[in-house]
Each structure stands twice: as structure tokens, then as C-alpha cells.
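Here is one chain, start to finish.
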Amino acid sequence: MSLVRIGSFEEFEQYIGKDLGVSDYHQITQEQINQFATSTLDHQWIHTDPVKAKAEGAFGDTIAHGYLTLSIVPYLWGQIVDVHNLKMMINYGIESLRFAQAVLVNNEVRLNANLKSVVNLRGTVKAEVNVKLEIKDQKKPAFSGVLVFLYHFQ
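Its structure:
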């Protein structure tokens, strides 16, 4: 799918209930997992010790932190939608977030997005987006939820 360009509330409205698209796949590497562990001070062995994870872990390898998979959403979202003509954008919240499946090291993930709703709140647009982080060659997503963004257009 091509990048969806949105520059106003009215343009957002056209996509209510529709698929916005999917991002490219992004591979989660051990280096990325280790950097996230350092940033968050979460060095649990299931994430950072490949030898122990293979020998003793339930997944046969290291896994990405759930919050690491969530943290790449802005990067992947930017591959789906280009919201322009903005004064400001705020990541307002996440609703109904559920982690459904672990992301193993070297798995590839992509974001799938559908516009649930959009409301004009006296000049600020509140957009609710249904998302799933899909894992390549897996039936269950890594997570699903509703992202809530606030957009203040020019």
C-alpha cells in the first residue's frame, strides 16, 4: 500500500472504519534488544542472554521486551500515514493493549492500522487507530490495541 497523506480533519474522516495500511517489516535484532535493555534497565536474561535463553527459556531463544515492540510503533506508523499541515501532534494514549505472542530475536514485525474513529474537539483532532503488530509467518500478532493521537492542524 502507498503512504496515506492526511492534512486536515476532513481528510481523516474519509478513512473512518477503513484500513490505513501496513508498514514494511522490521527485524528485531539482539543488538536492538540489548540497547533497549540498557535504556530501560531491564536486563532480564530471557532478553539479553542467548545461551541461557536457548537452554532454559520457554521460547528457545531470546525475546524482545514487550515495550520494545511497542516503542517502534512511531517508526512503523510513519510508514503508513503522513499526517502533515500540523502545529502539534501528541501521543495521547493506548487503549485495550494486549500482548498476545512473544517476538523472538530476528523475527520480523510490521504494523497494521485501521482508523477506528476521529473526532474534532474544538480544533484538536482525536484519532483512535486499531493496530496490530504482526509477526512474519505467525498467525497471532505480537500485540493489538487502540492508539490515541491528538493532532492540531495549522
